Amino acid sequence: MMEEIIIAGFGGQGVMSMGQLLAYAGMAEGKFVSWLPSYGPEQRGGTANCTVVLSKEPIGSPLVSNPATAIVMNAPSFDKFEPKVKPGGLLIVNTSMADRKSMRTDIHTIYIKATDMAGRLGSPKSANMVLLGALLAYLPIVSEEAIIQSLEKVLSPGKQHLLKLNEEALKLGKSHLISSETARS
Amino acid sequence: MGKLLMKGNEVIAEAAVHAGCKYFFGYPITPQSELVAYMARRLPEAGGLFLQAESEIAAINMVYGAAGTGVRVMTSSSSPGFSLKQEGISYLAGAELPALIVNIARGGPGLGNIQPAQSDYFQVTKGGGHGDYNIPVLAPATLQEIIDLIREAFEIADRYRTPVILLGDGMLGQMMEAVEFPEKPAVKETHKEWTTTGTRGDGAPRVITSLDLNAESLEQRNEHLQRKFASIRQNEARFETLYCEDADYFVVAYGTVARIAVNAVKKARKDGVKAGLIRPITLWPFPLQPFIDTRDRAKGYLAVEMSAGQMVDDVRLSVNGRAAVSFFGRTGGVVPTQEEIYEQLIITAGGGDVNENGI
């Protein structure tokens, strides 16, 4: 088993922390994990991305040019990573910030108004968790329990009060995905 | 202690603390600043001293001063900052002072950029500063390996009275992986009868210097250094091989590029090409053994680097004309992909027209 995921968006959308959360959860489940950030000047005001690899075996390359899965949180990231997803792969789009349809017919695309949905929970910033919930509902690469346990570790002591909100956002993304995929099939 | 998810830069710092490093003098520069920041918090807590110097030049000379008292000391930087330290590194080599110097390399030449690169290979393995000297250079490929190699770096430094370099790239410094710190005591303090900590009137005064105005005497000092370097060459070369037993074609790569190459080698194997990987762990001394073991039956070697071709020279010297050596590299902070390496490997195996410059 080897999962390669790229998460991309504006700096500040929680792209890096979402990737770290996946890596933590994978580690908690005994998998080999790697997390590689884009750390160039593009982070300042432009797009940022990170690559997460989860594997049952030691990880070779932490750098992935064609991921099986991409989560894009804004329009520039959509444009950049849509062509890079492997055929048969998965693209998850935050349509609150990137409102167009994918031109690809050889991948599965999930559209979700994550920022709007997170806003209704009271925190647009937890859009990343809504998207993560959707990812895990479609592709259970790590368990929800592992994510929630890892959240406690990732959130600094001063932000532990956000635990509940993040958990709600995760569940919201998950239930939204399940209902929309049921409608689609 | 259990598994921790940490950044490469932080792993270097924590591993050094575990190995008993008590003194850090440095100056921040991307992509290794997390190392400096981590030490600023961690060393005082561990009973050590962290000092942010006014420049890289000041920092390396503080390392010289501290090493002269026999304490375990280190500094770290990235390419342009590392260049600034070169004068001090030559002095450390000349005065035979043990210390650890980390270079988390970035794209050059000049100010370049902050992306990963391996274009400081010549600088770290061929001397770099003035005078006849070499410094052991360790190049980890994973964050777990960093922990082992930092420990070995301090041991080698003490054993041979030499500065040691740990060379990584921006990707290694910035990425996160799960690591586990073994419950080992700090590297054993060796008896250092040469330290300048004051004789208190007992015995002859001790002097630590690289200055020697008498030519014959300086030549003797050089001969002593060369004997020491020969001994390091003899005893400290380290490497790892993968699928080399039955391989026809050998990818040679170090550090993070070796990891990317693993994927390419595995794919080539699936496609019926008998490929193997030689990963030098020490860049100086460059490991000769895996080439002696394979060069008489090898159909070809492919050196892959994030440079315009530097380690490939050592590969050619080690193969010594007994097989073809080709090269593929990306420069300026561009990281070669596994697909590119695979493609080059197939060209090498097909005996096709390999782009000698690779760019």
Automatic annotation (TrEMBL), chain A:
Entry keyword Oxidoreductase: yes
UniProt keyword list: Oxidoreductase
Q: Which InterPro entries match?
A: 2-oxoglutarate_synth_KorC, PorC_KorC, Pyrv/ketoisovalerate_OxRed_cat, Pyrv_flavodox_OxRed_cen
Question: GO molecular function terms here?
Answer: oxidoreductase activity, acting on the aldehyde or oxo group of donors, iron-sulfur protein as acceptor
Q: Does the keyword Oxidoreductase apply?
A: yes
Start and end residues of each Pyruvate/ketoisovalerate oxidoreductase catalytic domain: 11-173
Which NCBIfam families does the annotation name?
PorC_KorC
Mind telling me what this protein is named? Answer: 2-oxoacid:ferredoxin oxidoreductase subunit gamma
UniProtKB/TrEMBL annotation, chain B:
Question: Ranges for the Pyruvate:ferredoxin oxidoreductase core domain?
Answer: 247-341
- InterPro entries xrefs: 2-oxoacid_oxidoreductase, PFOR_II, Pyrv_Fd/Flavodoxin_OxRdtase_N, THDP-binding, Transketo_C/PFOR_II
| Source organism, top-level taxon | Bacteria
What keywords were assigned to this record?
A: Coiled coil, Oxidoreductase
Q: Which residues form a coiled coil?
A: 208-235
**Domain named Pyruvate flavodoxin/ferredoxin oxidoreductase pyrimidine binding: which ranges?**
14-193
GO: which molecular function terms? oxidoreductase activity
Q: Does the keyword Coiled coil apply?
A: yes
The name of this protein is 3-methyl-2-oxobutanoate dehydrogenase subunit VorB
Whichever gene encodes this chain, its name is vorB
